């Protein structure tokens, strides 16, 4: 990485054109000497400054043959310079990672479904009942995985066109979570799912199928990033925040480093750990979870640690109770 940076600077320093590089927040992270002399400034002094502070009249960009130029007004003169925002190049990388992740995610279960279906077709007479049952179970689990991926992809495209389509109703969180646990128990037979609900917890006001999608993503992650036999517990209780129900999904898995906690809700982001390398994922789950929870008027928090091998993570979701007035229901539906 460092070498690429040095190579980049060496090349850009040799150019006769002014070049400026900014980060996601438009802070200047690099300017070549030509740029600095054009604007009669010291390169070192520019680093970390906001582009908008330095060149407030440098808003217009033009793209000529794939290069982006900015036109800046400075001391009543107009100048143009090459402009590169690292966010643009990062987006390209994110999308190419996305295409390869999704292709892999689709191909793996499809290959497995086709393989087991082929075996059954070719050797139907030779297989006993228990083998057929085993193969059909794998086909069903792999189909569930495909459905989850397709639902997540559809949710992302809906988020991108700002289309929500949520139908709010009063839902019993515990019974929905038990249904999700039943689906996941087949997929993770060694993980015990322990669901606890306090006595006086009211129903929540949510879109039922989206609530299931949230819980599938959170509980699937809890199992996926835990070691075999690790207990996955879900605790439902009244939140300290008035009129909200708290749902905590706890695991004893690999955990997440503090510096990565802010990134896990970003689109297509997978954090490197030795289980992400072994497990499948598109990096979309938590992005969708957060978006859906917020559209339902709720919040999500995470606490995690990697200090001990089994420190694990706790994802807490707050969702509004169903005793909300019809007005607040309408407000949520209009979001
Ligand atoms: P995916 O699981 O498909 O990679 P997610 O958006 O669901 O995508 O999660 C993003 C990243 O957050 C994961 O790649 C993983 O590194 C981390 N993560 C999510 N949940 C957990 C968890 N319960 N324990 C440890 N890491 C987690």
Structure write-up:
The chain folds into three domains: 6-87, PAS domain (Beta-Lactamase, 2-Layer Sandwich); 90-161, Signal transduction histidine kinase, dimerisation/phosphotransfer (DHp) domain (Helix Hairpins), CATH 1.10.287; 168-334, Heat Shock Protein 90 (2-Layer Sandwich). The chain is built from eleven helices and twelve strands. The protein has helices at 2-14, 33-38, 43-46, 51-54, 86-123, 129-160, 173-187, 208-224, 274-278, 285-295, 326-333, and strands at 19-22, 28-31, 61-64, 67-74, 77-85, 169-171, 193-197, 204-206, 232-238, 244-250, 299-304, 313-320. The strands form three sheets. A five-stranded mixed beta sheet has the order 2-1-5-4-3. Strands 7-9-10-12-11 form a five-stranded mixed beta sheet. A two-stranded antiparallel ribbon has the order 6-8. A hairpin with a 2-residue loop joins strand 4 (67-74) and strand 5. Helix 5 (86-123) packs antiparallel against helix 6. The mean pLDDT is 83. Residues 217, 221-222, 225, 251, 253-256, 264, 269-271, 273, 276, 281-287, 313 line the site of adenosine-5'-diphosphate.
């Amino acid at each position: 990485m460092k070498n690429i940076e040095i190579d980049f600077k060496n090349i850009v320093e040799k150019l006769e054109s002014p070049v400026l590089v900014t980060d996601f927040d438009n802070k200047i992270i690099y300017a070549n000497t030509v740029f600095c002399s054009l604007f009669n400034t010291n390169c070192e002094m520019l680093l970390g400054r906001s582009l908008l502070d330095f060149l407030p009249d440098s808003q217009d960009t033009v793209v000529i043959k794939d290069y982006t130029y900015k036109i800046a007004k400075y001391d009543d003169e107009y100048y143009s310079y090459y402009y590169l925002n690292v966010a643009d190049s990062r987006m390209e990388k994110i999308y190419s990672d996305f295409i390869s992740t999704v292709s892999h995610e689709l191909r793996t279960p499809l290959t497995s479904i086709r393989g087991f279906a082929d075996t059954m077709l070719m050797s139907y007479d030779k297989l006993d009942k228990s083998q057929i049952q085993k193969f059909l179970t794998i086909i069903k689990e792999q189909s569930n995985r495909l459905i989850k991926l397709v639902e997540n992809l559809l949710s992302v495209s809906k988020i991108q066109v700002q289309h929500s389509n949520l139908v709010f109703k009063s839902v019993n969180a515990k019974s929905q979570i038990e249904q999700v646990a039943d689906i996941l128990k087949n997929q993770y037979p060694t993980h015990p799912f322990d669901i606890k609900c306090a006595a006086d917890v009211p129903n929540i006001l949510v879109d039922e199928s989206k609530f299931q999608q949230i819980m599938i993503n959170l509980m699937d992650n809890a199992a996926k990033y835990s070691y075999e036999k690790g207990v996955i517990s879900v605790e439902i209780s009244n939140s300290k925040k008035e009129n909200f129900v708290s749902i905590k999904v706890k695991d004893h898995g690999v955990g997440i480093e503090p510096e990565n906690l802010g990134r896990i809700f970003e689109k297509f982001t997978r954090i490197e750990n030795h289980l992400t390398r072994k497990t499948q994922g598109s990096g979309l789950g938590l992005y969708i979870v957060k978006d859906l929870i917020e559209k339902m008027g709720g919040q999500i928090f995470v606490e995690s640690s990697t200090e001990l091998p089994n420190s694990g993570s706790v994802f807490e979701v707050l969702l509004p109770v169903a005793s909300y007035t019809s007005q607040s229901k309408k407000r949520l539906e209009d979001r």
